[in-house]
Structure prediction request, 421 residues.
Amino acid sequence: MADILIKDADALIDGKIGKHSIYIRDDKISGIDTEPKDFKPDTVIDGADRLVIPGLINAHTHSYMAPLRNIADDMPFMDWLLKGVNPVEDKMTPEDAYWGAMLAMVEMIMCGTTTFNDMQMHIHQTTRAAKESGMRAVISRGLVGSDYDKNDVRIREALEEMEDGKECDRLSFMLGPHAPYSCGPDYLRCVADIAKEKGLGLHIHLAESVTEVENLRKEHNCTAIEYAQKAGCFEVPCIAAHCVQVTDQDIEILKNRNVSVVTNPASNMKLGNGFAPVPKMIEAGINVALGTDGAASNNSLNMFHEMSLLALIHKGVGKTPVCIGAEETLRIATENGAKALGLEGVTGKIAKGYKADLAILRLDTPSMVPRNNVLSSLTYSANGSEVDTVIIDGDIVMEGREFKSLDVEKIYAEAEKIVKK
Prediction:
């Protein structure tokens, strides 16, 4: 690692954009506007016509799914899952999953994402790809089952991977029970008990579709949120993806149990599942973060697109233009994501002592001109192509939209091979 100076750039700090110089030493921001003692930059980045923002945080995705982009579009949710995605997914090898994850990470970095929360299917492959790409990641092995069995092979694999990945401080782990329709109550209780024993959080899909909620009503006489609560999922830090089909009582439970909700607007719309009541959740005091979901259901991993959708759809659905603004949207995509992932105080902000996880955007692009309100432009105008340079953990991983260490052409070629196979 080397000392880096980003000199005289516009920067998003504490919800406001102003001119700043940012000093990076090793993996952290060591100063803002005040030069640290004995600071001798190895690299100086000219901030002219540049905007520095905290790296975006994709709080729910499935990186290995990138090669499944556009294979099962325009299908009902359960058909998409059972007839479209699952048959192809079942044919993927661990090596396929690795290249899929690499493709996803290239896309995320190019759109300014520095941290992601992943539910994977093939053990070790997301971890391997994250180490090589330089990204910060929270990783969960997807878990499915019906019985209380602490020796379940998937759980054992997940715990073994945590041991293998603990030497990389950019990686952290959770347990990932997939969803109420794939995890019986005894199995969920087992996973929750292990999470409690090991001091881990949970990452789960909840209340994503009408079918899921209707079936739970018929079989267990409860909502998806109540089902998860009864099984102990909220007795540990929990990230609940989607939460589209929720009641007012569900929202109260989520708030009282400090569950972080990750909304995924594009995926939820594409699969016809509806819109999570995000303004109501925010009003209740729930920590709401933002994710893309996987490329099979989005179909991109572009957090700028997701931010725009988040702000716009709720204005339209709620018939009010003031329910979610640009500043709040950016906070949801950065600070709130960090809080959900257990990385509060580590990343998600430009502040002294925080990790140097930053995206640098060009301001001399059509989408950012004129500069009437640069903060608003990040939500309503930017599309991700403005991202010029990305720094993660103090390392420049992309500069001038060129990757420093990844062989992007090889990654593209391997992804094409997977599809042909």
User: Anything to note?
Assistant: Residues 142 and 176 are 5 Å apart (CA to CA). The longest helix spans residues 94-110.
